[in-house]
């Protein structure tokens, strides 16, 4: 069994192995990381006693697990990699490579020789190999689409020379998003949302056409947005399936077999990386009160054991538990709104008394979600007398395709309205002080925070933008290829010279920002390029608006170093305590 573990002190990721001899950290010579599409995924694979991984500098390495000897397999300059899998029948590795702005599905032999298997699409997901090794399947998509909007299922019988002489590809019936192909034996299964939810389908073929047979009719998303390659929310077991379902922001793990189904591991709230070990199920599980766990689950009984992780973060206190809040749909809102509310800890309530200040958190993405999992940064605020609300605003995943697609052309409007809906709901019930409302967001959530501060009648006391979008038009010109068409979907057509986006560009309307702001930015960010934040701060200061800037030169899109994370919290604490101080 193998897994990746983050190492915040070093700002890297380590590869671990578990066998009958116990667990050990593999000496990979550095951090393991895929940079494909900037979000990575599928950074390692294992085959016949050899592990292959992607290094921080985007080279492919292999290690003999018996003697620990490692060597560089491929060192192509200017390439990034992801979605590494083993093709055991042919003793080779498969992966997705991007080089010079083009992606391809490639094969790598034990001597590091490459062959391109397919390169007709703009983007490729991680491939999967049938159990007899004769067939491959993968998902691809084209610009300007994102993989959760419109994508294609591709299959191919492998030729005698390991090539793919004939590829069959098609979108789901009526259009939609397909993801996570996997073989149960030689039978292909996928997850598709063409019926309104990401649900499992069994794929057959007749006359060169795919046949889509539903595998579960539960009206729930059985996966989340595929930002990374190699996600796995389902696993074939000796009898039936293990599948994840998302309901109101909570992931449920279900064992489905003939004659019934059973929910297991109910104290956990999110599940990823489902895999089979002998007759048992393995997965990464997360919960509100413990660190991430690796579980081993017996499908026959539903009993589980924690193999690794799962520690309680503190011995002297209990983490504040999230409360799922659902704001009903109303006259001005088509959908109900869900989020997680964290009240201040009991000790801080006793110290401060009264209604607590509230930090509204807009998750990133924006096609993503907030989950009820242990988050030390949220606990930091609860211990200091703040209430926190993470909001699954319009466009979030886990609530069906219609809710997700409702953000099209409405970014900066629908999400902002939902943030204030949640704030009003909590204030009206006496759970937050209306005079001390703050908003915070990362990446796209930073844009939501800025737009909320510009909204008519905004009553925010301060905003925090963590590597947030400030000028969509300039970002479209400079961001990475993966998201180069995303902004047009989120905001609608820009028009000639970006005329239709001007009212949706905080940097152009800094004078309308109604509260002090603090910005955090990494100097190596390829997604929200650093100039976005620098220009926004300058624009605010030019019109006399309070704006602080905290710069981490060696960080990228997300802060990996624990020291920088701690500094960020300290600066935020000072800001929320005295937002008008410079």
Q: How would you portray this structure in words?
A:
The chain has 582 residues and is α+β, with helices and mostly antiparallel strands. It has 4 domains: 1-119, Neuraminidase; 121-230; 232-312; 323-577, Alpha/Beta hydrolase fold, catalytic domain (Rossmann fold). It is 15% helix and 36% strand. The chain is built from 9 helices and 36 strands. The strands form 8 sheets. It has an 8-stranded mixed beta sheet, sandwiched between helices. Strands 12, 13, 14, 15 and 16 form a 5-stranded antiparallel beta sheet that branches. A 4-stranded antiparallel beta sheet has the order 4-5-6-7, with no helix packed on it. A hairpin with a 2-residue loop joins β23 and β24. α4 crosses α5 (444-454). It is globular. The relative contact order is 0.07. The model has no long low-confidence stretch (mean pLDDT 94).
Brief summary:
The protein has 582 residues and is α+β, with helices and mostly antiparallel strands.
Alpha-carbon Rg, integer: 24 Å
How many structural domains?
A: 4
Largest sheet: 8 strands, mixed
Report the β-strand fraction as a percent range: 35-45%
Structural class: alpha+beta
- Reading side by side through the largest sheet, how are the strands ordered? 29-30-32-31-33-34-35-36
Apparent shape:
globular
- How many helices? 9
Number of DSSP E strands: 36
Beginning-to-end CA distance, first to last residue: 51 Å
- What is the third-level CATH name, the topology of the largest domain? Rossmann fold
Task: Report the helical percentage.
Answer: 10-25%
Please, what is the average pLDDT? 94
CATH superfamily label of the largest domain: Alpha/Beta hydrolase fold, catalytic domain
CATH top level label of the largest domain: Alpha Beta
Proper CATH architecture of the largest domain: 3-Layer(aba) Sandwich
Low-confidence stretches: none
């Amino acid at each position: 069994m193998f897994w990746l573990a983050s190492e915040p002190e070093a700002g890297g990721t380590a590869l671990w192995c578990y066998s009958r001899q116990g667990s050990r950290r593999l000496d990979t010579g550095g951090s393991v990381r895929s940079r494909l599409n900037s979000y990575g995924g599928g950074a390692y694979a294992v085959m016949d006693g050899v592990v292959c991984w992607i290094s921080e500098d985007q080279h492919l390495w292999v290690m003999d697990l018996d003697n620990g000897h490692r060597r560089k397999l491929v060192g192509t300059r200017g390439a990034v990699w992801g979605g590494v899998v083993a093709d055991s029948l042919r003793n080779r590795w498969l992966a997705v490579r991007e080089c010079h702005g083009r992606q391809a599905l490639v094969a790598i032999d034990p001597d590091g020789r490459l062959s391109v298997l397919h390169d007709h699409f703009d983007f490729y997901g991680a491939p999967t190999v049938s159990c007899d090794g004769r067939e491959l399947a993968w998902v691809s998509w084209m610009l300007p689409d994102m993989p959760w909007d419109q994508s294609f299922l591709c299959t191919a019988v492998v030729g005698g020379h390991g090539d793919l002489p004939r590829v069959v590809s098609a979108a789901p019936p009526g259009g939609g998003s397909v993801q996570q192909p996997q073989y149960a034996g030689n039978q292909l299964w996928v997850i598709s949302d063409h019926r309104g939810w990401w649900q499992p389908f069994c794929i057959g073929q007749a006359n060169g056409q795919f046949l889509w047979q539903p595998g579960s009719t539960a009206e729930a998303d059985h996966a989340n947005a595929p930002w990374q390659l190699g996600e796995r929310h389902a696993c074939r077991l000796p009898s039936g399936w293990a599948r994840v379902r998302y309901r109101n922001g909570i992931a449920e793990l279900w064992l489905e077999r003939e004659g019934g189904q059973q929910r297991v591991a109910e104290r956990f709230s999110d599940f990823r990386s489902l895999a089979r070990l002998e007759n048992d199920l393995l997965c990464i599980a997360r919960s509100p009160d413990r660190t991430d766990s690796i579980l081993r689950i017996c499908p026959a009984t539903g009993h589980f054991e924690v193999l690794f992780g799962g520690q309680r973060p503190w011995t002297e206190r209990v983490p504040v538990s999230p409360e799922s809040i659902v704001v009903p749909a109303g006259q001005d809102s088509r959908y109900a709104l869900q989020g997680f509310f964290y009240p201040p800890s009991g000790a801080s309530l006793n110290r401060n008394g009264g209604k607590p200040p509230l930090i509204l958190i807009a998750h990133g993405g924006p096609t993503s979600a907030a989950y009820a999992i242990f988050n030390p940064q949220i606990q930091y605020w609860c211990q200091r007398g703040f209430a926190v609300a993470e909001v699954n605003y319009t466009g979030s995943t886990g609530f069906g395709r219609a809710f997700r697609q409702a953000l099209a052309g409405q970014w900066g409007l629908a999400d902002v309205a939902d943030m204030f809906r949640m704030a009003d709901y909590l204030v009206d019930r006496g759970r937050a002080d209306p005079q001390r409302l703050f908003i915070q967001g990362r990446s796209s959530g930073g844009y939501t925070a800025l737009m909320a501060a510009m909204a008519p009648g905004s009553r925010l006391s301060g905003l925090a933008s963590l590597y947030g979008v400030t000028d969509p038009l300039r970002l479209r010109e400079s961001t990475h290829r993966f998201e180069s068409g995303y902004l047009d979907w989120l905001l609608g057509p820009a028009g000639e010279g970006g005329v239709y986006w001007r009212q949706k560009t905080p940097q152009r309307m800094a004078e309308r920002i109604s509260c002090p702001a603090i910005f955090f930015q990494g100097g190596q960010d390829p997604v929200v390029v650093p100039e976005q934040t620098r220009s926004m701060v300058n624009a605010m200061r030019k019109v006399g608006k309070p704006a602080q800037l905290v710069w981490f030169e060696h960080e990228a899109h997300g802060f990996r170093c624990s020291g920088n994370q701690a500094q960020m919290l300290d600066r935020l604490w000072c800001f929320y305590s005295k937002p008008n101080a410079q």
